[in-house]
Amino acid sequence: MSIVWKRTLRILLYVLLIALALLYLVPVYVVLVTSLKTNSAVSLSQMWELPHGLSFSSILSAWAQLGPNFGNSFELAIPATLISAVIGALNGYALSKWKFRGSSVIFFLILFGMFIPYQSVLIPLLKVLDAIGLYNTIGGLILVHVVYGLPIVTLIFRNYFAAIPYDLVEAGRIDGTGYWGVFTYIFLPLSIPGFVVAGIWQFTQIWNNFLFAVSLTNPPNQPVTVALVNIAGSQTVQWNVQMASALLVSIPTLIVYILLGKYFVRGLLAGSVKG
Amino acid sequence: MQAGAPRKHRFSWDTFSAVATLIPTLLVLGVFVYGFIGWSVYVSLTNWNSLIPSNTFVGLQNYLDILQTYRFQSDLRNIVVFTVFFIVGCLVVGLFLALLLDQKIRAEGFFRSLFIFPMAISFVSTGVVWAWILNPNTGVNLILKSFGMKHLPEWFLSTVIIPNFGLGQIDVGIPLALLAVVIAAVWQMSGFAMAVYLSGLRGISDEIKEAARIDGAGAWRLFFAITLPQLRGTTTTIIIILTAASLKIFGLIYAMTGSGQEFVTDMPSMNMFQTTFQGNEFAQGAAIAIILLLLLASFIIPYLVSTLRRGDEA
User: What is the count of structural domains for chain B?
Assistant: First the structure.
């Protein structure tokens, strides 16, 4: 192949990549230009046009409706993420470094919970939460997300610890520490990246969850995803406020993604179970 | 005790500790996953189809009733059509993007992050935004109109089903409205396929490729004879994970289209939710949920068993 031909191909490659990148950004463009318009400037025929001058009135009006639900979502996502990550670390340690007869059966039984359609547990879940007084509470949603998050956090930590050499366990044993000593002094200090991966994954999943939120809470206890759907479903709310709401709801997880995207992708890949 | 490779421990306090660590999780999942599934199965066999709970056993009556409804038959059509288009879309787009990114390009990290970012967003946000982009009165249609297109697509408001032949109570075919939802779903999830494919591509040894090149294989031949066959396992993984996500699809439909006119965009998950919580027909809702669970379990269980077995041998 000649140099010229090679160089042309190379340029084409970048042109293609940039075109595709722009295509993926179309929804971002639409959300930004629409949410920066005022009510009067939003007309169907000018959807693609840039706003004449910035207006934050749509965003403020979206915030006025969503603000309280933001509090709910943070109150839900932060504790649920922390609790499930800690339990996941303990489980992953037991399943990766202390295999015993039957441990892979246990792993299977835990993992299966990750794939079930949650509709198949929803009716009993509702009855039980109601019976213990946690229906329509943030506490109830925390419990639900911790429980149904256990499979994925266990998987993430099991794969993470499996990559740490077994020699470290042996070294700890020779020094006379047992199961908990090896965990506390050797594995826990090494597990920070595991916590980041599991934490980001759980936070994103819990923040974005809709099914549990809409089934188990009523206003004013609903997380932001439900509030967004309520705003979008109402006939009276303008498009600019809808787009501003979608933007606001997406900001926390997007910030996490922009800051720690590498770890998000690792969580993504962990979902494709490795033995 | 001999030092060496990890082994399965015979009884010791350490093994006891490992088991004790796992017991709370097992108990909780035993109740919340397996116990609740059993409970749902039980509910689906009763006639609890009003606000007042009932324990009268009616056998499989709810399943028979559900399967005969226009709505659930539409759901089955829709879920199959949606899953096929969604998976093929994600595989093709994901593989294409991964191949582009695998050409030792500049700013690879930037492009990779960009194609994955929709995965950090909730399905409901995606649904709200794409409902605006594909709104037949505005959005993409404005652009198509400016190019002089006369018959503008109705997108998710279309009720056309092609090829449309009657079977049972419904028209069987591809509801065009679903394709609009597929576009939004592929936008959101193709980054996952790309990321998995990219790690698969990086796993193919350079030696194999080099050997093929020395044998005189061109770029196309290299792709079809080496790269694609090496990616078979990767493709299977992506298909399994995305099928599981597709069968459960809920938030996107709820936010973007709802059930649609004549249920053209309805899904089992939507049907279950509305039947149970808006219709108060708990037994029928439970029956829908159990059918959905059986669909998922039929391929997830073999997948989990085979990957875990492979892991044990390694």
Answer: 1
Q: Examine residue B49 and state whether it is found in any structural domain, yes or no.
A: yes
Residue pLDDT tens, chain B, 314 long: 344 445 554 568 888 999 999 999 999 999 999 999 999 999 999 999 988 888 889 999 999 999 999 999 999 999 999 999 999 999 999 999 999 999 889 899 999 999 999 999 999 999 999 999 998 888 888 889 888 888 888 899 888 888 888 888 888 999 999 999 999 999 999 999 999 999 999 888 888 888 888 888 888 888 888 899 999 989 999 999 999 999 999 999 999 999 999 999 999 999 999 999 999 999 999 999 999 999 999 999 999 998 888 776 55
Q: Is the peptide bond before B6 cis (omega within 30 degrees of 0)?
A: no
Is residue B6 situated within a structural domain?
Answer: no
Cβ–Cβ contact B251 with A under 8 A: yes
Work out the end-to-end distance of chain A between its first and last CA atoms, rounded to an integer number of angstroms: 44
B141 — contact with chain A (CB < 8 Å)?
A: no
ipTM for this prediction = 0.92
Query: Which chain B residues have a beta carbon less than 8 Å from that of A164?
Result: none
The values of phi and psi at residue B273, to 5°, are: -60, -50
Dihedral (Cα; A29, A35, A38, A39), 10-degree rounding: 110
Does B12 map to a domain?
no
The letter for the amino acid at A228 is: L
Q: Which domain holds residue B292?
A: 24-313
Helix (H) or strand (E) holding A197: helix A192-208
Q: Does B152 touch chain A (CB under 8 A)?
A: no
Written as six digits, the tokens of A89 are 């670390």
B15 found inside a domain:
no
Structure tokens at B106: 């500049």
* Residues recorded for chain A: 275
Q: Are the beta carbons of A273 and B124 separated by less than 8 Å?
A: no
Domain of B265, CATH number, reads 1.10.3720.10
Q: How far apart are alpha carbons B41 and A66 in whole angstroms?
A: 38
Interface of B with A in 56-85 (CB under 8 A): none
Pick the CATH number of A61-270 from 1.10.443.10, 1.10.3720.10, 2.60.34.10, 3.30.530.20: 1.10.3720.10
Question: At a CB cut-off of 8 Å and minimum separation 6, what does A177 contact?
Answer: A185
- The partner residues of B173 in beta bridges, in order of sequence, read B163
Segments making up each domain of chain A, as ranges: 61-270
The closest alpha carbon to B187, from A207, A81, A21, belongs to: A21
Query: Which token pair is B22?
Result: 């796992």
